[in-house]
From TrEMBL:
Region of interest: Disordered: 67-102
InterPro entries, alphabetized: AAA+_ATPase, ABC_transporter-like_ATP-bd, ABC_transporter-like_CS, ABC_transpr_CbiO/EcfA_su, ECF_ABC_transporter_ATP-bd, P-loop_NTPase
Stored PROSITE patterns: ABC_TRANSPORTER_1, ABC_TRANSPORTER_2
Family (UniProt): Belongs to the ABC transporter superfamily.
Residues in ABC transporter domain copies: 2-261
Record organism: Leucobacter exalbidus
Entries under SMART domains matching the protein: AAA
Taxonomic lineage: Bacteria, Bacillati, Actinomycetota, Actinomycetes, Micrococcales
The name this protein goes by in its record: Biotin transport system ATP-binding protein
Enzyme class: hydrolase
Source species, domain of life: Bacteria
């Protein structure tokens, strides 16, 4: 569960303080939430509040971790990358999970919330595919052989195992985005935030990544300009001028956005 409590974001500029996000109060319990809106409306800012990349200037944002998503549970239904959405829906938050404050519990929040960026290259640091996933696993798998096995298993889950020793620079855009998602999910976050994950992809790869995200067992927040993808969520929030302009069923939200764009 993700809760925004009167959260604002104000950035200092040369001409004074700029309010990027006016007070936002939202509670996300749905498995899949899409966030849409015009350029510069504040969508990424809202998304970045969720994993503490940005701290609210006033108010607060809290995260209640869901049941741990284990490899076996997530992978029980087979490879999601190649075959499309196959995983089970997210489970409800456990009553025993303590809420984490994004400003005060930074480490725990970043372990709980995985973040996928628009440009997967921004997330790729290591030269080869397997090393890149291993880097994500350095904290959770201290021993090298275990880390390698877990990385291979993560790649296998997304149909990328055959590319393990390839250079990350040799991957196609779709493969790179898949790798970025595989690396983030290898750490088993209970919430995933994806900021425009299909923007740089062609139609086929955009659908593939969309299928994957919608099929994940994790609670997933997707910021997107892809209204086809946004429509597949359980709930859609429209952001305009740093405010929540509409919040509701995807079809109604998209209709509102089309009418006001
Ligand atoms: N640190 C900052 N200082 C000043 N202005 C900022 C800062 N960060 C963001 N902004 C401005 O805040 C507004 C919202 O930015 P944000 O990236 O959240 O928009 P967005 O809805 O994700 O846009 P897009 O769809 O174009 O990616 C933009 O006008 C942006 O220029």
């Amino acid at each position: 569960m993700i809760e925004f409590h009167e959260a604002t974001v104000v950035a200092p500029t040369q001409t004074g303080d700029l309010t990027i996000l006016h007070p936002v109060s939202l509670t996300f319990t749905e498995p899949k939430i899409s966030i849409i809106g015009g350029n510069g409306s504040g969508k990424s800012t809202l998304a970045r509040l969720i994993n503490g990349l940005i701290e609210p200037t006033t108010g607060h944002v809290s995260i209640t971790p869901q049941n741990p998503v284990t490899e076996s549970a997530a992978g029980a239904t087979g490879a999601v990358g190649a075959a499309g959405a196959t995983a089970t829906p997210a489970s409800a938050p456990t009553s025993s999970s303590p809420a984490l404050d994004t400003a005060h519990d930074g480490h725990a929040v970043r372990r709980t919330v995985g973040f996928v960026f628009t440009d997967p290259a921004a997330q790729m640091i290591m030269p080869t595919v397997i090393e890149d996933v291993e880097l994500s696993l350095r904290r959770t798998h201290r021993k090298k052989p275990e880390r390698r096995a877990a990385a291979l298993s993560a790649l296998d889950r997304f149909g990328l195992a055959h590319l393990a020793d390839h250079s990350v620079h040799a991957l196609s855009g779709g493969q790179r985005q898949l790798l970025a998602i595989a690396s983030v999910l290898a750490t088993e976050p209970s919430i995933l935030v994806a900021d425009e994950p299909t923007t740089l992809l062609d139609l086929k790869n955009a659908r593939r990544i969309g299928d994957l995200l919608i099929g994940l067992p994790q609670q997933t927040v997707i910021v997107t300009h892809d209204l086809e993808l946004a429509a597949r969520a359980d709930r859609t929030v429209v952001i305009a001028d740093g405010r929540v302009a509409f919040d509701g069923a995807p079809a109604a939200a998209i209709a509102w956005y089309r009418a006001h764009a």
